[in-house]
Prior knowledge:
The protein has helices at residues 46-49, 138-145, 160-165, 188-196, 235-246, 256-264, 305-314, 316-328; strands spanning 29-34, 37-42, 55-59, 61-63, 67-72, 77-87, 90-97, 106-109, 113-121, 127-133, 173-176, 200-206, 229-233, 251-254, 275-279, 294-298, 339-342. It is of the alpha/beta class. The chain has 2 domains: 5-63 and 162-342, QueA-like, CATH 3.40.1780; 67-145, Thrombin, subunit H. The strands form 3 sheets. It has a 9-stranded mixed β-sheet with strand order 2-1-17-16-14-3-12-13-15. It has a 6-stranded antiparallel barrel with strand order 5-6-7-10-9-8. Helix 7 crosses helix 8 (316-328). The longest helix has 13 residues, at 316-328. It is globular, with a radius of gyration of 20 Å. 44% of the residues are buried.
Amino acid sequence: MSLTVDDFDFHLPPELIAQHPAPERSGSRLLHICGQLLTDRLFADLPSLLQAGDLLVFNDTKVIKARFFGVKASGGQVEVMLERIVDAKHAVAQIRASKSPKPGTRLTLAEAFDVVVTGRAGASGEFFLLELVDRSNLWELAEQYGKLPLPPYIEHPAEGADETRYQTVYAREPGAVAAPTAGLHFDEAMLATLRAQGVGTAFLTLHVGAGTYQPVRVEKIAEHRMHSERFEIPQATVDAIAATRANGGRVIAVGTTSLRALESAGNSNGSVRPGRAETDIFITPGYRFKVVDRLITNFHLPKSTLLMLVSAFAGYAAMRAAYLHAVANGYRFFSYGDAMLLEPADNEKA
């Protein structure tokens, strides 16, 4: 079927957008979706829904302090959100200003250091290329002067608690400007319980960019072009997936970022290629999954590419019903909200 962005719209009462995390990481709710069967659970129930021999694949990216306020040389105010730090001297960013800065514009950020706009990037030029001036290390400057980049739908500025709760407990590879939020529900006790139960864990790294919040600007979703994100899958994870597959276990992606990386590196036989790559994969209904058997994820924005992805995985009708159910039953939405465990639409991959 030819789908439009309006096919992925739904009414979301603003009060269901979670502004703060649950008191405990694993204290959130969990909606288990298996076709048209919807079961209300707690995230703490997850071990009872998994089996010995299953494999959870986590994204171990770490959110950097990527948000800056500053001024142009002319005195105009700017807000800069790093999309990615390319190297110690260069970055790609979103810039909010009364007038878009032109190449050659010098910006002073956090009253501490200067960058120069050198050009535009992205499929529609939505990002700016920045070069550091007279300083040597953007990574260090971001950590020292940047602010934690909470999503645009969270209305309070980053607080002390956010420094901890907007990171997964296993975050270790700095580079993301948005958290892989499905992983926020896991705490050390939950991970220990799963390992004791015989559920395996493996890791990959995909640095989530601010482009994850970019809206779909075309009517027909087939015309949308995704932003690109870096990922790396180590050999140990490839081996764990192969062993899981050989032993009849299930590969469970924790979050859409893990799923996108695995499917981007996946082969038709379900194996995965190790190494570093970039992905701009756009998963919509009709896609045939090669690697991932189950998906843990949060509730996503209306008309978003991630809502399209989960509709491809669990089935369009099933996701429509699930979101209506979640709204009617007061589930908390988005980054600090509740979670879903999705079974595949047809219980088989290509």
